[in-house]
Amino acid sequence: MRISLLAFASLVIAGTAAADVALSIPLDLGHDGNVEAQSYSCGEGEQFAVQYVNTDANTLAIVPVGGQDRIFVNVVSASGARYVSGAHVWWTKGDKATLENTLEEVGIKECQARDAAASE
Q1: Could you tell me the domains of the chain?
Q2: pTM value?
Q3: Fewer Cβ close by (within 10 Å): the C or N end of the chain?
């Protein structure tokens, strides 16, 4: 019995320590890669910035959802730029954008681009 309790305590401690681990994935921007930031206004005065990471091999968007930054991956779209992260879809075309939670019936948020800033 003592060994089982010790093993259980070790697992709990290991699980807690693993929860504090951060992951970093280096991306080589390549010759033509860049990082751009775009501010958006959505709905009733909500404002946030989205970072777009464009590399030779990857195109990503970092969008705040529910108070956390989420990494969205660019996928094929007929028009505009479409990014997905789990059940969420971030879709931009011109200065308009939508953030959709595909698991909710009324989960679409309409957004408008504001001033743009670019950085590398």
Answers
A1: 29-119 (2.40.128.200)
A2: 0.74
A3: N
